[in-house]
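Minimal example, chain plus 4'-deoxy-4'-aminopyridoxal-5'-phosphate.
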Amino acid sequence: MKIFLDGKFVDEADAKVSVFDHGLLYGDGVFEGIRLYAGNVFRLEEHLERLEYSAKAILLTLPMTRSELRDATCETCRVNGLRDAYIRLVVTRGVGDLGLAPWSCPKPTVFIIAGKISIYPQEYYDNGLAIVTVPTRRIGPAALPPTVKSLNYLNNILGKIEARQAGALEAIMLNDQGHVAECTADNVFIVHKGELFTPSASHGALKGITRGAILDIAAELGLPIREAALTRYDLWCADECFLTGTGAEVIPVVKLDGREIGTGKPGPITARILAAFRRRASAEGTRI
Ligand code: PMP
């Protein structure tokens, strides 16, 4: 596998960054997780825009332009002969001294990995996920805006560990006010009386690219959709619930904290949305 690293393609074994890189020392950096479907990169411009906003929010000047990043992303897929892949694009603050001051880092590090995607087994798409609410709260917008897709994932990792300790693959994370924010690496939606609801960024949700695609699909299918403050009650009483993410796409949730959601089976609106998403994923995108 060839990795794009600071302007060059190198073998996997040579794709190394310094132990003085602040991405490693402090989680100081930003990233994107992107999908390649049948030779088309899904919503590449949206991913690059989110990367630019994440970088801007942490005062990190990207060392490559939009078009250089676009070309490098596509080229990484091409040189590896990939048609379907998961792409990880990372920009760290770069190499600096041991203090946390980012101004000791003159040059950000950029790398792009395109490889296999690990997705949920098919049985979870067929039967739905049973998830739990975890005690660790999602970091609030006033501390580290969840809209910044940064290399600081410890908050989500604690949530993921707590989910596993409770025997679940994903977790609902609440914000400081007790509203539903998102999952550890996915956005959450509910369906109630034919309407879709999802938490807004101000409630602690990342503006997921898949979430954005679902907003478009809902409009196309004529389903009303609202960003709203949701509590666990809203999930308990929902007719359907599903999660969205670049890796997961659209995956039904049938249980929260041992309680059945709706009929306890994946719902018809979730199925329509997943089908519409897969149609879009194979039809739209930037040809590599
Ligand atoms: N929330 C978090 C915390 C995430 O890390 C992700 C990405 N895996 C998502 C939501 C979903 O975003 P996207 O659809 O852009 O993958």
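Residues 268-283 form the longest helix (16 residues). The longest strand covers residues 29-37.
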